[in-house]
Amino acid sequence: MNEADTQWMSLALEIAERGAGYVSPNPMVGCVIVSAEGEKIGQGIHERYGQAHAEKNAVDSVSNSELLDGATVYVTLEPCAHHGNTPPCCELLAELPIDRVVVAMEDPTPKVAGKGIQYLRNHNIEVEVGVLKEEAEKLNEFFLHHQRWGRPFVTLKIAQTLDGYIAAPDGDSEWISGQHSRSLVHEWRSRYDAVMVGRNTTLLDNPRLTVRHVEGRQPKRIVIDGPLELPDELNLFTDQYEEKTIVLTHNQKKYREEADPMLNMLKSDYFRGTTLLVDEKDGHTDLGDALKELGKLPVTSVLVEAGQSLASALLRENLVDKVECFIAPKMLGGGARSVLGVGINHMSEIMEFREVEWKQVGDDLLFSGYF
Amino acid sequence: MNEADTQWMSLALEIAERGAGYVSPNPMVGCVIVSAEGEKIGQGIHERYGQAHAEKNAVDSVSNSELLDGATVYVTLEPCAHHGNTPPCCELLAELPIDRVVVAMEDPTPKVAGKGIQYLRNHNIEVEVGVLKEEAEKLNEFFLHHQRWGRPFVTLKIAQTLDGYIAAPDGDSEWISGQHSRSLVHEWRSRYDAVMVGRNTTLLDNPRLTVRHVEGRQPKRIVIDGPLELPDELNLFTDQYEEKTIVLTHNQKKYREEADPMLNMLKSDYFRGTTLLVDEKDGHTDLGDALKELGKLPVTSVLVEAGQSLASALLRENLVDKVECFIAPKMLGGGARSVLGVGINHMSEIMEFREVEWKQVGDDLLFSGYF
Predict the structure, then answer these.
(1) B53 annotated ligand binder
(2) Are B164 and B331 contacting, i.e. CB atoms less than 8 angstroms apart?
């Protein structure tokens, strides 16, 4: 690994991120091509799911193909080795007069898993693997988590007062965090596959969970409605993004009577979203099973914007991977708590975060930490 | 105001702070003397209550008194004009062959209040007032608060988890914050006149409230014990700093039977601290009256290290001036909350902080804000 390699890979990672939200369930990938003289001659990213891969876009961007002679290709993920929506990138690269391919990390997908790298080496191209590997893994943490565990990466978002309250005693929760914080949440919504809420929040706030304050892709919207009794007229079931709504229920009877896809379609004004039947656990929706079912769709990442009840249940079941908590410089001294009832009794069981970051966002502070 | 003035006053403020804790109930004062040629020829601070003032120490530090000819004296507070423990500083300065005195702020004490400045001007010394005034006011915010309101400046210290808990459900509160945070609290103890706790914390934790992890002056220790029923053997009533303990009660009967200073002295093993009788309000100790009585002692500043009950009561009564809140990167999801029950019902009543600061302390975050 040399300084130039790190620099070009860093650029490839930076541009890759522009595909956030749009390429899922694929990983974000960036590619930079550098001539034998050390000049950048092309770059490209995977822009949208189902469209061309980063390598193809980068190669197409090279205006003078003579410069490819002896060039180096930097790519943030191992070039694919299988025929999917596009032909294998390793074959595309092997046909070029390039000398060297630098790869940040292997693709863990079983269909690739080293085969792309092997293919290039078999065609006499020098391949270096592992340049900015950690950064590349961070960039695609949702994808990697989903690949490994079969369920989505779950981030719990909290917006609370200094003393840990998310609503005043009268139930009002608008607005504890400031405008900058709320805009940032909209940006996150555009990067996560889905936003999740529980019954109470859906009933109380009738949220839309759309991306509004910023440009970006609209997310899927997941409602945990165990008894399947939320009223039909709520925003999530009627607005222009109705098809992006996924309802999770454990009520077998109601699901079979009303929400089974076949029955649902027969109705005059049927729900155009998805209803999934998942397991029940102690009278509640089994959240572990819910995430497993979401993983199969596939949903690779979920931003939970729930209230106390669902947030605490997810924490209790160890299903939260990351917490993003806005702390407003205010105190309520009462009302709904951000988290209550996770089954901890002794100090020795305290949940500790790792990779903690604190950041000022407007007047608020943003805490980020992983479990 | 010129750059040199700001620079020398800044030094005077910096050295003044070394008297923190030791000079109370006097303000901290620093003094720097600069020759006509612009060289520093002396400096001094008010080091301990009852000892020499900053001006006297600064003048005494000048080795060659000829250099005083045409010199400028920088002092963070108006020189005193009255005979207290020491002769008036304005007279001391007026006798010197100096040209100019630069003062950061007037002394609001009725006995001074501009008289020191007037005295100097009457003796043909040029006086400039207001250089780094805000910084000087900040330095002595405890003193100024006490001068103005007659009660101590009250800082509420909280050490909580991200989700706002100060103890696990089983009652254990050791240790939520880290070692760095705890050391910083000991430093604060040495700067505040007194540390305050309630009945519950005193019974549960049997605290000492002394300065241990750092060098510094030991504070007074205030216990709010409304019914006057705490056991005699607790650390605060028996350790080597027993005389620094102040118990506040509203139980007139018990106070007259047991704790009145005259009766107390007759006992074989009498309590060498102070017991104060204060008003009752709705069956509890009237905290406003308690602070008024403390102000008379005088106690100019109180660091409250209380649990949920006393902390919330002080907030409810609007008696907290500043909050210092350590947030540990941990979650408990249950247990005692930092604040509960301050009488807020609607979002419009939310308590907002001003002059907010966020600071990393070890692994914890420290929030500071004023009401």
Answers:
(1) yes
(2) no
CB-based contact A356 B329, cutoff 8 Å: yes
Q: pLDDT confidence of B137, banded at 50, 70, 90? A: very high
Q: What is the CATH number of the domain that holds B93?
A: 3.40.140.10
Answer yes or no: is pLDDT of B264 > 80.
Answer: no
Interface test with B, best of A157, A324, A332 (most B CBs within 10 A): A332
Which pLDDT band holds residue B86 (cuts at 50, 70, 90)? confident
Q: Check whether A213 has a pLDDT greater than 90.
A: no
Tell me, yes or no, whether B335 and B193 share the same domain.
yes
In a domain, B11, yes or no: yes
Q: Find the residue in B nearest to A309 (Cα).
A: B333
How many domains are contained in chain A?
Answer: 2
Subunit contact B341:A334, Cβ cutoff 8 A: yes
Q: pLDDT band for A84, please (50, 70, 90 cuts).
A: confident
- Closest chain B residue to A336, measured at CA: B340
Sorting pLDDT into bands at 50, 70 and 90, what band is A368?
A: very high
Residue range A258-291, pLDDT digits in tens: 888 777 777 777 888 999 999 999 999 999 999 9
Residue A1: predicted pLDDT: 58
This model of the complex carries an ipTM of: 0.89
Question: Which two tokens mark B183?
Answer: 């050391």
Test A329 with B356 for CB contact under 8 angstroms.
yes
Task: State the average pLDDT for chain A.
Answer: 94
- Full domain range(s) for residue B114: 3-139
pLDDT tens for residues B87-107? Answer: 899 989 999 999 999 999 999
Contact pairs from chain A to chain B, CB under 8 Å: 153
Residues B217 and B360 in one domain: yes
In whole angstroms, what is the distance from residue A74 CA to residue B334 CA? 49
Residue A12 lies in a domain: yes
Residue in chain B closest to A333 (alpha carbons) equals B340
Q: Cis peptide leading into B358, omega within 30 of 0?
A: no
Nearest to A333 among B334, B341, B360 (CB): B341
Calpha distance B133→B120 (Å, rounded): 19
Binned at pLDDT 50, 70 and 90, residue B1 comes out as low
What are the catalytic residues of B?
55
The whole-angstrom separation of Cα B24 and Cα B152 is 12
- Rounded to a whole number of angstroms, the CA Rg of chain B reads 23
- In degrees and rounded to multiples of 5, residue B72 shows phi and psi of -115, 135
Residues in chain A: 371
Rounded to the nearest 10°, the torsion over CA B77, B79, B85, B88 is: 180
Across the interface, do B168 and A346 touch by the CB < 8 Å criterion? yes
The verdict on whether A55 is a catalytic residue reads yes
Instruction: Identify whether residues A134 and A155 lie together within a single domain.
Output: no
In a domain, A145, yes or no: no
Q: Closest by alpha carbon to B305, among B216, B217, B215, B181?
A: B181
Q: Which of B163, B340, B367 to mutate to test the interface with A (most CBs of A within 10 A)?
A: B163
Q: What is the CATH number of the domain that holds B258?
A: 3.40.430.10
Among residues A17, A55, A106, A257, the one annotated as catalytic is: A55
Do A239 and A362 lie in a common domain? yes
B190 and B246 in one domain? Answer: yes
Q: How far is B354 from chain A (nearest CA, A)?
A: 8
B127 secondary structure, DSSP code: E
B115 shares its domain with B260: no
DSSP state, residue B112: T
Which residue of chain B is at minimal alpha-carbon distance from A312?
A: B333
Q: B339 and A163: CB-CB below 8 Å?
A: yes
The last residue of one of the domains, among A139, A167, A182, is A139
Asked if residue A239 and residue A96 are part of one domain, the reply reads no
Helix (H) or strand (E) holding A146: helix A141-149
Q: Kindly state whether residues B227 and B327 are assigned to the same domain.
A: yes
| Contact (CB<8Å) A333/B316 | yes
Of B160, B340, B358, the CB nearest to A360: B358
Please, are residues B128 and B116 in contact by the beta-carbon 8 Å criterion? no
CB contact under 8 A, B341 and A350: no
Q: What is the mean pLDDT of residues A100-105?
A: 96
Identify whether B145 is part of a domain.
Answer: no
Last residue of a domain, one of A109, A139, A169: A139
